[in-house]
Predict the structure.
Amino acid sequence: MLLAHNLYVSYASRQVLKEINLEIRKGEILALLGPNGSGKSTLLRTLSGTLIPRSGTVTLDGRSLHSISAPERARLVSVVPQHALMPPAFTVWETVLLGRTPYINFLGQVSANDEEIARSALQKVDALSLQDRYIGELSGGEQQRVLLARALAQAAPILLLDEPTTFLDLSHQMSLLDLVLRLAREQALTVVIALHDLNLAARYADRVALLVDGRLAALGDPRQVLQPETIAQAYHWPVRVVDHPFMDKPLILPEFLP
């Protein structure tokens, strides 16, 4: 279980997150929603252990995340960042193998098992055909799939994703989120995913957390949180929420202003 208790996070003198309390359960998908600048990326960085809160704690199965060494933390939490600097002269294969770094011995030897895990990760994100290409040759969407493959190669029980569908076309958006859902269900993978698309959150998340101005404005089942008044107040735009025509999910439709 990943637990955030009373988190306050600042950049220099600017307060970004205030009084965040979250319990993220094993095997669930929690979607982080909120307008630009609401603190979604900052919360993910704090949950990953790369950003130390001003006050409050992040614990994993009762252990403080910041008391865990970086190599061990990398075996427990993997991250797909929103913007990542990947060496353009690295091949896709070399980049995905970096996900195995926490398991490679001090001699830097890559085992056959490491290679098999990396190959499987590429296959899962439909990028095996890219393995010999250089990162600098890839489109933004292709790079995003490689980042996910690298994270999957870490084989960590917790996966944090920061707006992973941004550069993806429709088919790769759906296949990526279908994969995340399958891993959560079949392997009890715990997933926290920041999204801008409310309908993707409604479709794939078990729970949603709505951040507004650095505070947790709402938390719960998508149907509970994704209400017209709540969304309009957070995003400053009126919406209509209806039943999805062929799924037991809410469908959010922006209103047209006169």
